[in-house]
Automatic annotation (TrEMBL):
Segments forming domain DDH: 25-164
Domain DHHA1, first and last residues per copy: 372-468
Stretches assigned to coiled coil: none
UniProt-listed InterPro entries: DDH_dom, DHH_CID, DHH_sf, DHHA1_dom, SSDNA_exonuclease_RecJ
Official protein name in the record: Phosphoesterase RecJ domain-containing protein
All residue ranges annotated as the DHH-CID domain in the record: 201-284
Listed GO MF terms: exonuclease activity; nucleic acid binding
Species: Halodesulfurarchaeum formicicum
Length: 473
């Protein structure tokens, strides 16, 4: 078996040998889909190689957390985090019995440690070519290879790596590319991944069909998006059997022929109604199916699997997501599904709250303070989905505040439409505006977040408004 990512091979061998020289390893990972799959992949490989493994899931890794881990000492494998704290890790690695090994894909800080596995270090783009889970997979394959363990086939771990990459939103034009694609190919080779062209709408395995079409929020198809009755009429016109004994069918329940027919009708409708070509392209992409999982479950499709894992992390029950990744299909899966259901309920309640409360308009943005009414961990998703609801203008950037349970105020900003083409970059704007009030922020062009001190909200809004205005001019 060839190494899945040759460029990382030498570093992976050195890191694997160092880990195998230990008796026990603590795996420390990030609390999102990518981090949970990373931890599961690494822990599975190390255990198969005969090591005792402990896993700790963390929301982030600040200096205090690193110092804590170093004080306890031993061999610590960081997955999907660690590179950002490389400077501190480097200082502590030389001082005692602490041996850090990092397998991460985030931009590395200055500093160097002996065992640092990161796509950025070998000229790969850690934002789209290899996620944390893929990096952990490279290490896991090497650990098993060096330990001479080849049963079950180590490439089966690629299924989780695909879930991690999809969860980390690494797809480019709807599919995994670069080293991520090589990892997916490993999974296909051993039958744990099936990829194919499909509708790129979330929920093909579990959402009732009319609801699936109704929620095509990335691409607005007039008459269908946000219109349950319209979606039903559209499906009925195509002779889709909607009232089955088992209730609404899902996309996966339709046969391949029907799927093709509905998909092309959907594209035709979008073209007829003047949806721009690049948005129409976004309706189709590559789906990654896990054929060993039950059809119609949340685990069958990589993006739905990732969503389930994120739901456990958002409600401080990462250990549940980790157990699902490690194969628990009973108690942990039930609990994860309950968390996801509650998560969805909280999101709808949040959207309703924002739509009822309404926003206050500044010159270039609209804002709303949710206080304790919306959890800080979901206020960003809620804000994005509330655009266009009630009187909330969908073409103006929205800024939503929510109080954090441990003090401070969480800020989330979202924007829609073509503001990106006009120069809007919320990530930069939030970083700069947060800095003016002693907070911290950053993120992407159309979705960003910050944490600011309580009471600084209005000052922050005017600083942000000024920056967004400057960007748009
Ligand atoms: Mn990640």
């Amino acid at each position: 078996m060839d190494p899945p990512v040759p460029a990382l091979h030498d570093r992976a061998v050195a890191a694997a040998d160092r880990l195998l020289a230990a008796e026990s390893v603590r795996v420390v990972s990030h609390d999102d889909a990518d981090g949970l799959t990373s931890a599961a992949i690494a822990a599975t490989a190390l255990e198969r190689a005969g090591l005792a493994v402990d896993v700790e899931i963390k929301h982030g890794l600040d200096e205090a957390a690193i110092d804590d881990l170093a004080t306890t000492g031993g061999t610590v494998l960081f997955t999907d985090l660690g590179s950002g704290g490389l400077d501190r890790l480097a200082e502590l690695a030389d001082t005692g019995s602490f041996t850090p090994v990092v397998a991460d894909h985030h931009e590395p800080a200055d500093g160097s440690i002996e065992h640092h596995l990161n796509p950025h270090c070998v000229g790969l783009d850690g934002g789209r070519e290899l996620a944390g889970a893929g990096t952990a997979y490279v290490l896991a394959r090497t650990v098993l290879d060096r330990a001479g363990v080849d049963e079950p086939d180590p490439r089966e771990l690629a299924a989780l790596a695909v879930v991690g990459a999809v969860g980390d939103r690494q797809t480019v034009d709807g599919e995994l590319v670069g080293a991520n694609a090589a990892v997916a190919a490993d999974g296909e080779a051993v039958g744990v991944i099936e990829s194919g062209t499909d509708l790129a709408i979330y929920g093909t395995q579990t959402r009732p069909l009319p609801k699936l079409l109704e929620y095509t929020t990335d691409v607005r198809i007039p008459g269908i998006t946000g219109n349950r009755q319209g979606a039903i009429r559209f499906l009925e016109a195509l002779d889709v059997e909607l009232r089955t004994e088992a209730g609404w069918p899902t996309w996966a329940d339709l046969g391949p022929e029907k799927r093709t027919q509905v998909a092309s009708a959907l594209l035709t409708r979008a073209i007829e109604r003047g949806v721009p070509a690049e948005r129409i392209d976004a309706l189709v992409g590559t789906s990654y199916i896990l054929p060993r999982e039950e059809p119609g479950t949340q685990l069958r499709d990589a993006s739905e699997f990732a969503t389930l894992l994120n739901a456990t992390a958002r409600y401080e029950e990462s250990e549940i997501g980790l157990a699902v990744c490690r194969g628990d299909r009973d108690g942990a899966l039930d609990r994860a599904e309950t968390l996801l259901k509650n998560h969805r309920r909280n999101i709808s309640a949040g959207i309703e709250y924002l739509a009822e409360t309404g926003t206050t308009e500044a010159e270039h943005l609209q804002w709303v303070h949710a206080g304790e009414q919306i959890r800080a961990t979901i206020v960003g998703i809620v804000a994005g989905m509330a655009l266009g609801e009630g009187d909330i203008d969908r073409h103006t950037p929205i800024v939503a505040f929510a109080n954090k349970p441990d003090g401070g105020v969480k800020v989330s900003a979202r924007a829609n439409g073509r503001l990106g083409d006009r120069g809007l970059n919320l990530g930069t704007a939030l970083r700069e505006a947060a800095a003016t009030v002693g907070g911290e922020g950053g993120g992407h062009a159309m979705a960003a977040g910050a944490t600011i001190p309580e009471g600084a909200e209005e000052t922050f809004v005017s600083a942000l408004d000024g920056r967004i205005g400057a960007q748009l001019n």
